[in-house]
Design goal:
It contains 19 helices and no strands. By secondary structure, it is mainly alpha-helical. It starts with 9 loop residues before the first helix and ends with a helix.
C-alpha cells in the first residue's frame, strides 16, 4: 500500500485542470477531422473526383497527422529536456490551435484550386506534430508538479482529459449533423467545430502561460543537471530497459484504444448486425466510462501501488474485450451496456504513463517518454487496423484475442522488468 501523501493544493489543482483541459482540446481538434471527412473530401478536391477517392484522399491527409506525431514528439521533447517543460507545454497547444483555426477559415478547392489540399495537408502535419508532444509533455509536466504519492491520480486525470476530447468531438459532430441540413453543413456549418476548437485552444494556450515551471526541472537547472547534447540519445543508450518497458506498455495502450474504442464502432455493426444509432450511443457511453475509469485507475495506483492494480487492470481489460465482442455476438441488443462496461475496463491505460514517468530520470524523462509512446503508437497504430481486418475475417472474436495478448504481454513486462525502479514506483516519486 502506498504511503500517505499530502492532498493536492490549489496550485496542483490549477495545473491539473489546465493540463487536462488543454489535452482535451488538442484531442478534440485532432479527431473532429475524421467526423467531417466526407464533407472535406467533397470540398478540398476537384469536383469530378469520385466520392470514394475523395474520401480516401481525405483519410490519407488524416493519416499524415499520425505520421508526423513521432517527429513532433521527439523535437518538442528534446527542447523540453534542455530548456524547460513549460515552454513546450504552452507551445504544443499553440501548434494545435492555430492550424485548427486556419482549417476552419481556409478557402476550398473551388476558390484556390490545388492549393487547398496542399494547405490542408500542411495544417494536418502541424496538428500531428502537436499531438506528438502534448500527451508525453503533459504527463511529465504534471508528474513533476504534484506531490509524491499523487502521480497516479495526475496521470489518470490527464488521460481522462485526452479521452474527454474524443467525446467532445463526437458530441460536436452529433450536434452539427442534427442541427443543420446536409446542404448547410457542406456550405459553411462544417467550419464551426474547427473554429470553436481553434479559439478555445488559443485560450488554453494563454492560460497555460501562467503555470510555473516544474520544481523538478527548476532543481535540475539550479544544479546545472539538465540534459546536454541530445537527450534522446542518452535515453536510448543509458536507459534501454526503461525504453523497452515503455514501448511494450505503450503497445498495450495502443491495442486497447485502437481496437476497443476506435475500430469497434466500425467492426461491430457489420459483424453482428447492430444499427448505426445504437452503435453511436454505445460508443459515446464507452468513451464516457473510459474517462471516469482513467481517473479511478490513477487513484488506485496511488492507493494500492502498481503491482496489484496492474494485475487486476489487465484481467479487467481482457474481460472487457471479450464482453464486448462475445457479448455483442450473443446479445446485440445489449451493445450499449456491454460497450459501457468495456470502456470502463479500458481505463487501465492510465497505468502506462504512470510507469513511463517513473522509468526515466528527470534529465531525459521527456525524451524517453515521448519517443517510446509515439514510436509505439505510430507503429502499432498503423499495423493494428490491418491486422484486425485480417483476423476478423477468420474469427469474429479476433479483436478480443489481440487485446488479450497485448494486455498479458504488457502486464508481464511491466511487473517483471519494472524492478530496477520498483523503489520509485513504491514510493510514488517521479524524481
Amino acid at each position: 500500500m502506498q504511503t500517505e501523501a499530502r492532498p493536492l493544493d490549489r496550485n496542483d489543482v490549477r495545473t491539473l485542470t489546465l493540463a487536462a483541459l488543454g489535452g482535451a482540446l488538442e484531442f478534440y481538434d485532432f479527431i473532429i477531422f475524421v467526423f467531417f471527412a466526407a464533407v472535406i473530401g467533397k470540398l478540398f478536391f476537384p469536383p469530378d473526383t469520385p466520392q470514394w477517392l475523395g474520401l480516401l484522399q481525405t483519410y490519407g491527409i488524416f493519416a499524415a497527422g499520425y505520421i508526423a506525431r513521432p517527429l513532433g514528439g521527439i523535437v518538442m521533447a528534446h527542447f523540453g529536456d534542455l530548456v524547460g517543460r513549460k515552454r513546450m507545454f504552452v507551445f504544443s497547444v499553440f501548434l494545435m490551435a492555430v492550424p485548427t483555426l486556419l482549417i476552419g477559415l481556409m478557402p476550398t478547392f473551388a476558390t484556390i484550386g490545388y492549393a487547398a489540399p496542399i494547405l490542408l495537408l500542411l495544417f494536418r502535419i502541424a496538428q500531428g506534430a502537436a499531438i506528438g508532444g502534448e500527451a508525453p509533455g503533459a504527463w511529465v509536466f504534471v508528474s513533476e508538479h504534484v506531490p509524491p504519492g499523487r502521480v497516479g491520480l495526475a496521470c489518470g486525470m490527464l488521460t481522462a482529459g485526452l479521452t474527454f476530447g474524443i467525446l467532445l468531438g463526437s458530441l460536436m459532430a452529433l450536434v452539427i449533423n442534427r442541427s443543420f441540413p446536409p446542404a448547410e453543413i457542406s456550405d459553411w456549418a462544417w467550419r464551426i467545430p474547427f473554429l470553436t476548437g481553434g479559439a478555445f485552444g488559443l485560450i488554453a494556450m494563454y492560460l497555460r502561460r501562467f503555470l510555473e515551471e516544474t520544481p523538478v526541472f527548476e532543481a535540475m537547472r539550479a544544479r546545472a543537471e539538465q540534459a546536454r547534447g541530445i537527450p534522446l540519445i542518452k535515453a536510448l543508450a543509458g536507459h534501454g530497459g526503461a525504453m523497452a518497458v515503455s514501448l511494450v506498455a505503450s503497445w498495450m495502450l495502443t491495442a486497447a484504444i485502437v481496437v476497443l474504442i476506435l475500430l469497434a464502432p466500425t467492426n461491430l455493426p457489420g459483424l453482428f448486425g447492430i444499427d448505426a444509432v445504437s452503435m453511436s450511443l454505445a460508443n459515446l457511453a464507452a468513451t464516457a466510462t473510459l474517462t471516469l475509469s482513467a481517473v479511478f485507475t490513477g487513484w488506485c495506483l496511488d492507493r494500492f501501488g502498481l503491482r496489484p492494480v496492474m494485475a487486476v487492470a489487465a484481467l479487467a481489460l481482457i474481460g472487457g474485450a471479450y464482453a464486448l465482442y462475445a457479448g455483442a455476438q450473443a446479445r446485440p441488443d445489449l451493445v450499449i451496456a456491454l460497450y459501457a462496461f468495456t470502456g470502463f475496463t479500458v481505463g487501465a491505460v492510465s497505468i502506462v504513463p504512470y510507469v513511463m514517468v517513473h522509468a526515466f530520470p528527470p534529465e531525459v524523462r521527456f525524451s524517453g517518454v515521448s519517443f517510446a509512446y509515439n514510436l509505439a503508437y505510430a507503429v502499432f497504430g498503423a499495423l493494428t487496423p490491418i491486422l484486425i481486418g485480417w483476423v476478423i475475417l477468420r474469427d469474429p472474436l479476433g479483436p478480443a484475442h489481440y487485446v488479450a495478448a497485448a494486455a498479458l504481454v504488457g502486464a508481464a513486462t511491466i511487473l517483471t522488468f519494472a524492478r530496477p525502479y520498483s523503489a520509485a514506483l513504491a514510493s510514488g516519486r517521479a524524481t
